[in-house]
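Render Tyrosine recombinase XerC in 3D.
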Amino acid sequence: MKNSPTPTEDRPRLEPSAAWREALALFDADLARRGAAARTRRAYGFDCTQFALWCTTQGLDPAQVSTRVLRRYAAALGERDVVAATVARKLAALRSLYRTLREHGHLAASPADLVPAPKRPQKLPHVLKADEVAALLDRIPATTPLDVRDRALFELAYACGLRAEELVNLDAGSLDFDAEEVRVEGKGGKTRIVPVGEPAVRALTRYVERARPTLETDRAETALFLSKSGRRLSTSDIRRRLRVWGRRAALQGGVHPHALRHSFATHLLDGGADLRVIQELLGHSSISTTQIYTRVESARLKSAYARAHPRA
């Protein structure tokens, strides 16, 4: 076998072998069939293509890859100081690829199932305090149509714990004002119904009745949240506007859309909500993903104990 070249994050100039091209095409088609988002398909495709190119230089087709080969690939990535989170992401993509090949009868078993992901440092999510969220939202005035839109946008983001991508994908018909709930298209095309609190309902009513008609330039546009040019907002628009209001509210360390989602979940847990309920509201497929918020609560309690207890 040839000496192993070090994997590179740059897009190599070589072409994967014919067997690899066939496997990658099958994988992408399977992701599309499962309803994976275009961004997810691109990310998985890049990671798997990178591995396919590496294997092609080794003279290895998909069926010839063993657990040892995958471990060697992960080790080579580590030698290039690729961070553990990135290595874990690439291995997750390869597990999905080989699961597809096995399900379609190309392999009897997946060599990726026995490759452990590298341990990643435990990093707790950035959570705003309730008074910080209030300061952020109350800082947004109801003067211009864009201000009214932003207030409704971020009230909804915090009230429902929505991802930025979920926010921009909302249509005007996604809201049910009578039931005070919103229909959300989450990851993998999964739909969930999330209740909307009264402050968010009031902000949304003001936006839909007063601001959105002003921003609308095309009646065929179905997006709930419109840009100043009347088009559907992008996730970068949301991040940019939230940074602006975060600075005006003088929040330390800045704020991003996922911080509102983390704060939503943590404040629900603080208020006594069941973890399974929070899982459903967030649209997590696994309870293990939601359990990170119990660590946030544990860290908060330990900090309070250390500050207050005389024998801490």
